[in-house]
Design a protein that fits this description.
By secondary structure, this protein is α/β, with parallel strands linked by helices. It folds into two domains: 14-230, 3-Layer(aba) Sandwich (Rossmann fold), CATH 3.40.50; 237-293. The chain is 35% helix and 26% strand. The protein has eleven helices and 15 strands. The protein has helices at residues 52-59, 81-85, 103-114, 119-127, 143-155, 173-190, 201-207, 225-230, 245-251, 271-283, 298-306, and strands at residues 14-23, 26-32, 35-36, 41-45, 67-72, 75-76, 88-91, 161-165, 193-198, 210-215, 218-224, 237-242, 258-260, 263-267, 288-293. The strands form three sheets. The chain has a six-stranded mixed sheet with strand order 7-8-9-4-10-11, with helices on both faces. Strands 1, 2, 3, 5 and 6 form a five-stranded antiparallel sheet that branches. Strand 8 (161-165), helix 6 and strand 9 form a beta-alpha-beta unit. Keywords: ATP-binding, Nucleotide-binding, Transport.
Length: 309
Amino acid sequence: MDYNQTESPMTPLIETTHLSHRFAGQPVLQDINLRVEPGAIYGFLGPNGAGKTTTLRLLLGLLQVQQGEARLFGQDIRTSRLPILKRLGSLIEQPSLYGHLTARENLEVYRRIYGADKARIDAVLQLVDLAGTGKKKAKQFSLGMKQRLSIAIALLHRPELLILDEPTNGLDPNGIIETRELIRRLNREEGTTIIVSSHILAEVEKMASHVGIIHKGKMLFQGTLPELKHMQQGKSLLQLDTSDNEGALRLLQSEGAERKNGHLVLPFTGKDGVGRVARVLVQNNVDVYLLQPQQNDLEQLFIDITSGN
C-alpha cells in the first residue's frame, strides 16, 4: 500500500504533487504528496529535521517551489500567493508580538492591516481565552499566552485554513493542554481546517483526524487516524520478565521470542497464547514476574514505521 497517496472525492484545501526541495544541493524533501481535506485537523508528524517546517514554508510561499506543485484552495502558490494568503492564517516558529502592548493593542495593530471589523478583536480574545488580560503587557505573558495571542492574530480575518508549526514547542504541560483544546475548539466551533506540525505524537493522537508522517524528507504514511491505528493490528507484543530471561528466550524461540528495546517480547496471539507461554515457563521451572500485552500506541507505531527508513 502506498501511504504517500490517498483518495477522496472532496477537493482538498491543500494538495502537493511530487514536491521536492534542496538546500545547498542536498535533498530535504523528496516527492511529497500531501493532501489536507476540508474540515480536518491534520497532524503533520516527524522528528526534528524531518522536513515539516520546509514543507509548510513552501505552502506559504516563504520558500520558492523548486520541483513539483503546491496548491491551496485549488490554486498554485507560485501564481496566486496573495489570494491564497487572504484565506489562511499561520504561525511559523516563534510568535511575533509587540511586548510593550496589551493583547488588545497587539490585535488592533494587525486588525488594521487585515481590514477586519473592530468587533472581531473581542471575538478572538474570547476564542483564545485572553479576554481577561486587561492592561497586562504581552512581555509579561507566559509562553502559552503568547502562543495563543499569536493564534488570535492569525484568526482576525476569519481564515478557512490555519497552518501551525510546532505550536506546543517549549510549552509547559498546562500550555500544551490549552493549545490543544484551542485547536480542537477552532475546528469544532469555527469550522477551521487546521494543519499542525509536531514531533509530540501523543498530543497529535489526542486532537487529529488525519495524520501524515514524514521522515528524512519522505512521506511514510498519510491517512485518517483510525487507518493509522489499524496498522497496529497484528503487531501487538507480549512482554515478559522472568527469573531466567535467557532461558525463557531459548524455551520460547518457537513462539517468536526476541529481545526488543531491552525487553523480552513475543507476538501476542490472544489469551490461549498467553496460557501456553506460561505453561512452558512454569513446566521448566522458570518463575514468571511479568506477562502482559505491550502498550502499542501511536508512539510505538511511529517507531515501527520509521525504523526501516
